[in-house]
Structures are given as structure tokens and as C-alpha cells.
Amino acid sequence: QVQLVESGGGLVQVGGSLKLSCVASQHTFNTYAVGWFRQCPGKEREFVALITYNSGRTDAADSVKGRFTISRNNAKNSVYLEMNDLKPEDTAVYYCAADVFRGFSTGTYEAEYWGQGTQVTVSS
């Protein structure tokens, strides 16, 4: 039911920074663990980062840990992804997601609600 709209994607050079934003359509977004996923060219969608409903805990994929930071502002029904030291491997469509959970069969993160995605391209 919740609708998510991403923004902030674009073209950036290696080593540069970019900040993605996601705004949800309803306040129930604030009760969910939310996060970001990405789909790199030729690959399956993968988990990037998550944050709990009250910002009490965050988690991030090893590939982005130390470079990307997730945060949220529940008053604005929003979640953000600050990306630093970008690499060509970070080139992907990035998706905002709500109600993030662990898949029982895989043990990896999945989500119930998805945005349409925003393209991030890192030039080498």
C-alpha cells in the first residue's frame, strides 16, 4: 500500500559522493524497518543497507560498509542514503524499500514495498 519515491541519482566520478532520498506516501512507513537495495548490470538485486523504525540499529552490506550511511527522518516520512568514495562497482539502479525482513529460505534481506528506483552511474 505504501508508495515510495526515490530521488538524487545521477552520474558521478570515481571517488565522488551522492545522496539519495526516498519519500513515502503514508505515515505507516515510520513503523517499518526501511532500507536500500540495488541491482547492478547483469546481476540480481542485492541488499545495501537498512535502518530500524526508531533508528536504533543499522546494517549494511560488506561491499558498502564504511562508505555508505543510511538515515531516516520519520517526521518527513523519509529515508536517505549518503554514498561516499563511489566506485564503478556501485553503478546500479537503487531501490528504496519498506518493511525489510530476512527471507526464511535464504537468510538474506528482502522487503514488502518498493520504489521504482533511481539510476546511479559511477564513471571510471
Describe, in plain words, how this protein is organized in 3D.
By secondary structure, the protein is mainly beta. It contains no helices and eleven strands. The protein has strands at 4-7, 10-13, 18-24, 34-39, 45-51, 58-60, 68-73, 78-83, 92-102, 109-114, 118-123. The strands form two sheets. Strands 2, 4, 5, 6, 9, 10 and 11 form a seven-stranded mixed β-sheet that branches. A four-stranded antiparallel β-sheet has the order 1-3-8-7, with no helix packed on it. A hairpin with a 4-residue loop joins strand 7 (68-73) and strand 8 (78-83). The protein is globular and about 40 Å long. The N and C termini lie far apart (39 Å). The model has no long low-confidence stretch (mean pLDDT 95).
Question: What topology emerges from the helices and strands here?
Answer:
Layout: E1 4-7, E2 10-13, E3 18-24, E4 34-39, E5 45-51, E6 58-60, E7 68-73, E8 78-83, E9 92-102, E10 109-114, E11 118-123
Parallel strand pairs: 2-11
Antiparallel strand pairs: 1-3, 3-8, 4-5, 4-9, 5-6, 7-8, 9-10, 9-11
